[in-house]
Amino acid sequence: MDREDDLGLFGPGSVTWKVHDEPVLLVAGLRSLYLQALHPRAMAGVAQNSNYRADPWGRLLRTATYVATTVYGTTAEAEEAGRRLRALHARMRARDPFTGEEFRIDGPDLLRWVHVTEVESFIDTARRAGVALTGAEIDAYYAEQRRTATLVGLDPETVPGSAAEVEEFYLRVRPELRLTRAAAETGFFLAAPPAPKTLSRPLRLGLDLGPARLAYLGVAGTAFGLLPAWARRLYGAPGLPTTDLSAGLGIRTLRLALNSVPRRLVEGPLYKAAMERAAWADRAAARLS
């Protein structure tokens, strides 16, 4: 299949493209990190193998690029991204913070936890931001995302493929979750990461101390407020319905603000390339009809 014919793992008409068309999903990425940190082994894997404290923005950019590649890249690009990630994970080991046992970070249980928390964060953030999604579309999104689960090495049949299955998964995993010291430190770090070191010192100080810092704190607070009530309680915060209401209002307001920004400023190269391929496919279909 030629690259211009290849619409990737999803393509037009998929719920995945509908959901990921929303710039507000940047908040979902932060929400998923708060959630993932509550799994002691997942958190140990990150803390013992990652330089996220030294280069948080670089790590965030690499993760965002990977997600964009799986959503909007060609099939070959998505499969290559998955191959590189599997090879990287295969080399990594960590020690359990309670037992001291060494474990592989690419074990199915950990991969499944990261996958579910990520896709659930995307769909829940989109829904609460005001994206019109039916129950059938939400289930379809989870089923579609099984394709990305295969990229990291999971058997898609072992991955939740509906909202009900995701809820059952969380109920099953919750007894394993804890607020470890590493998770607490990460939670604080995510709320106020330093400005990128690649910037000049005056600009870094301006971002760390100026209005941009307050704006980011608001985004981080919204991401935290979007967590399930049980997750907020594990962090020691109240799981009150009022938090859900305020987070819902905050994410809807942020979506409106981001949607007022010219699209060219929020569209990445992978997205633009996918739209060009989709337009080419539409023109080709019109010529054949």
Attribute tags:
289 residues; mainly alpha; two-stranded antiparallel sheet; 2 strands; 66% helix; 2% strand; globular
Plain-language structure description:
One of its GO terms (molecular function) is oxidoreductase activity. It comes from Plantactinospora siamensis. Residues 17-244 form the ER-bound oxygenase mpaB/mpaB'/Rubber oxygenase catalytic domain. InterPro entries: MPAB/Lcp_cat_dom. There is one protein chain. This protein is an all-alpha fold and 289 residues long. The protein has one domain. 66% of the residues lie in helices and 2% in strands. It contains 15 helices and 2 strands. Strand 1 (93-95) and strand 2 (102-104) form a beta hairpin. The chain is globular and about 60 Å long. The model has no long low-confidence stretch (mean pLDDT 93).
Itemize the secondary structure elements and their pairings.
Elements: H1 15-20, H2 25-36, H3 40-49, H4 56-72, H5 75-90, E1 93-95, E2 102-104, H6 108-129, H7 135-144, H8 146-151, H9 163-173, H10 181-191, H11 201-209, H12 211-225, H13 229-234, H14 241-259, H15 269-288
Antiparallel strand pairs: 1-2
Helix pairs in contact: 2-6, 2-12, 4-5, 11-12, 12-14
Enzyme class: oxidoreductase
GO molecular function, one term: oxidoreductase activity
Pfam family, one: MPAB_Lcp_cat
